[in-house]
Amino acid sequence: MLHIKDVHARVEEKDILKGISLNVNAGEVHAIMGPNGSGKSTLASVISGKEEFELTQGEITLNSEDITELDPEERAHKGIFLSFQYPIEIPGVSVTNFIKTAINENRKAKGLEDMPASDMLKMIREKADLLEIDRKFLSRSLNEGFSGGEKKRNEIFQMAMLEPKLAILDETDSGLDIDALKVVANGVNKLKAKDNAVIVITHYQRLLDYIVPDFVHVLMDGKIVKSGTKELAYELEEKGYDWIKEELVK
Amino acid sequence: MSLKEKLQSSYIAFEDHLEADSPLHDLRTAAMKSFEDQGFPSKKDEAWKYTSLNSLLKVDYSVFPNGENAIELKDVKKYFLHEIDTYKLVFIDGVYSSFLSETTHDTIDVCLMSSALNKAKYKPIIETYFNKVATKESLTSLNTAFTKEGAYIRIPKHKEAQKPIEIINFSTGNEAATLLQPRNLIVVEENAHVQIIERHQSLSKNAVLTNSVTEIFAEKRANVDYYKIQNDKENASLIDSTYVSQERDSICSVHTFSFGGKLTRNNLNFRQLGEGCDSILNGVTIIEGKQHVDHNTLVHHIAENCESHQDYKGIFDESSTGVFNGKVYVEKDAQKLDAFQQNNNILISDKATINAKPQLEIFADDVRCSHGCTIGQLDEEALFYLRSRGIAMKEARALLMYAFANTVLESVKIPELKTRINKLIANKIGVNLGFQV
Predict the structure, then answer these.
(1) Which residues of A touch B409 (CB under 8 A)?
(2) Are the Cβ atoms of B399 and A88 closer than 8 angstroms?
(3) Where are its TM segments located (chain B) (predicted)?
(4) pTM of the model
(5) How does the average pLDDT of chain A come out, rounded?
(6) Are B393 and A96 within 8 A, CB to CB?
(7) Helices B23-38 and B3-16: crossing angle, nearest 10°?
(8) Testing the interface with A: which of B383, B384, B401, B419 to mutate, by most A Cβ within 10 A?
(9) A171, A213, B104, B293: which could form a disulfide with A85 (CB 3.0–4.6 Å)?
């Protein structure tokens, strides 16, 4: 589904990604772990098309189509979704109105009519229930005054509504208590299917107890330095990242 | 003949109809002299540095338009807050329209300035309040000299206006360019409460210049909410001077929504005379083309334990220009003050201009005064967030502008008005949102 080959990216003259290759197939869950500043969020931004990052080398394809020249919205239309580490507050635009706008913009891009209001309402209710979101919450201004947990839950709610092919969860576990974490992970698991894939970016192994990865990659200084199965995550949790550094030096 | 000369000769004709022995006569004569001495403001005046009236003053205005221009309700219904029941004071080319209005004398007075000026029973009111908080600034003086018609509203002690009051000034432009000078007097007595919506609307292509003056008196514990909707046509210019006098523990808010018109100047002048006053000055400006909106605010803090809050947001597209000149003046006895002023602007085009000048003059030593002023573009991070959800650039920008302007709406207390302004903003910016929550 997603093929990343030897990707180098920079921001403001600073090289951040220094040759990343990654293949994600439909039905898979990949975890990307690594210390602060290793380039995890940059990788997420580069896949989603954030313009301040300059791709200096390499290629990214989604279902065999080169997406490196596409705008963020075009990538979204092709099924890429990024759950933000720090979701943005939009006063005056309710969660419901926002998601309606997003859904209909996606449909417009595919040449479809707006979703009928009754279908939209039904879907909103269904997905809100899935994530144990209170109906009242849906009429609040997007992310405004939301707690950390509410923001993250709302990100996954948007994911549930948009039904992406490839979801990237950037530090979705940060700021969540264990109950909220379970709800969010449960939501993600229910959305998992044979034809979609998830990339989970996290510092900690904790989230991976609930969203179980097929593969774990360690990102350090802009490169994937080690890949393995979920056992690698436990090893990292136990020993930290230093042993990998030492291993690399050898 | 210059406009000033024309006004001078018109004044002589106008004065002929007035009783020479009334106290108002002296007041008008003094006001006319004050205008004559000062003339129209020019860019040399500090307060008018960024707003030029030159092109407006070259127009040959009809100073006393023919007052027999009828308009059909169906043609103007959209300018009223027709979703709810309101009192209405409607003026067509400066002349009261009884047909379109709904006045009352039941407990409260919602009626005409001409009645207040001419009827004996209102004499004490006029003597106590008329021209008492308005300054001698030249355009205000000009308005005082020519005062003839406008709204007169009085809410007696402990009473509340049961529905909002709309003041609407239509100009038909049936006889070329028109100069209008409405004059409003609003007296809200002890513990009384009123909500007022004011609008100026041109109905033709001909130029109209409105020089409006409003005096508001909020007595002890009075509560006044005043909303100005400025969404006029391209040919209409407005100079609005609103003077507010506040007594102890009164709360007064003025919201100004400027979305249209050629040139709009808002002089908003608050005087806090008693302890515990709260003044709220909010504004949203969204303009494009060659439109110009100038907010000139002054909050004069005289007494202790008061508050003032100013929040002005502006979005400027194409070659539009904006001015924010906000002054907070704190006298030495105005201790324990909490004054806050915020002015945020977004320039959408390279050709748009904003001149912002916040000023604090503080002579008291135990006060909290803060101000913030920003001029910028839309937040790139927020744009990326929206676009990553599949929302195209244009729509994403519009949503962010809508969100930016929207924060000021929180404090609008009439729900139907809030919805209306919400829609105006969405329309103006071009966002497509259903408003059911």
Answers:
(1) 92
(2) no
(3) none
(4) 0.85
(5) 91
(6) no
(7) 170
(8) B384
(9) A171
> Could you say which of A51, A71, A100 has the minimum Cβ distance to residue B434?
A100
Tokens representing B175 are 């006889």
List, for residues B163-183, the tens digit of each pLDDT value.
999 999 999 887 789 999 999
Distance from CA of B410 to the nearest CA of A (A): 9
Residue A46: list chain B partners with CB under 8 A: none
The fourth-level CATH superfamily of domain A2-249 is: P-loop containing nucleotide triphosphate hydrolases (3.40.50.300)
- How distant is the Cα of A194 from the closest Cα of chain B, in angstroms? 22
- Work out the average pLDDT over A104-119: 93
Both structure tokens of B65: 């338009």
- pLDDT, tens digit, for every residue of B373-420? 999 888 889 999 999 999 999 889 888 998 888 888 889 999 999 989
Is residue B434 over pLDDT 60?
Answer: no
pLDDT band at B435 (very low <50, low <70, confident <90, very high): very low
Do the chains contact at B437 and A139, CB–CB below 8 Å?
A: yes
